[in-house]
Input
Amino acid sequence: MLQSVELSIRALQEHAFKFLIAALSLSPCAAAAATIEVHKRDKGPALIVLRGEMVAGDVDTFRTKTSGIQHAVVAMHSPGGQLFAGIEIGKIIRFKNYATIVPDGARCASACAVAWLGGTRRFIDRSGKIGFHAAYVVKSGRAKETGAGNAVLGSYLGQLGLPEEAIIYITMAGPKSMTWLDVTEAQQLGIQVAHVGMSRSKAATSGSAPSDAQPAKPPAAEPQPAPKRADGQDADKLTPQQARMKECGTRWQAHKKEHNVQGQAEYRKFLSTCLKG
Output
């Protein structure tokens, strides 16, 4: 399966698919909904192209258009959109064991990055960018971080098999900022991703195999849209534990720069001390 996925990704760079990459990189993002296109191939996985702002209605569209497609690579270029859409599309991607990629010149941020994480194998091309931030709601024209949203997001990330330190990394940026993924740092935190073109032997020796070390088991049935949740009284507040974890994530960034340290072992050591203190 890995070999066929690699062949499909190579096809992204071949002449027959260059027009798709141009569309991903240059076309303006649709405001009303994402554009989802399916391109089947005679051999190898299909190519699914998702671009534009993601809304709730895109979940059913994605499910319908991918129905019956067993193997695929999902190429993504989106500024984000609704968290619900990102999570539910990510669940479908994981259930179907699709790979995900952010092509050269494309950006996948916010809800798009959440969906990208659903890939059983994740790739990023040379100048592709992937950005994360915490969940938020807009009240009175102002974006405010939401504890309820972060709890839902954290639950989804946990189901994907991501460790706690990776979840902190993904959610530590506020609504008006962004954590742009650094491949080396992400791998050290347990977010498995590979650059396009990295050989399997190199990926194995560098510990960067593009699938999670302990992927979550897929659900027994394809996920269906979750019912919309009514706002809780404290939906815009973080729990004390969430606030502490967020604070430790911010402190880690400063500690890492000040002491020139990095790596999963150092991060876990710092996090353990910070949470106890």
Q: What stands out?
A: The longest strand covers residues 46-51. The mean pLDDT is 77.
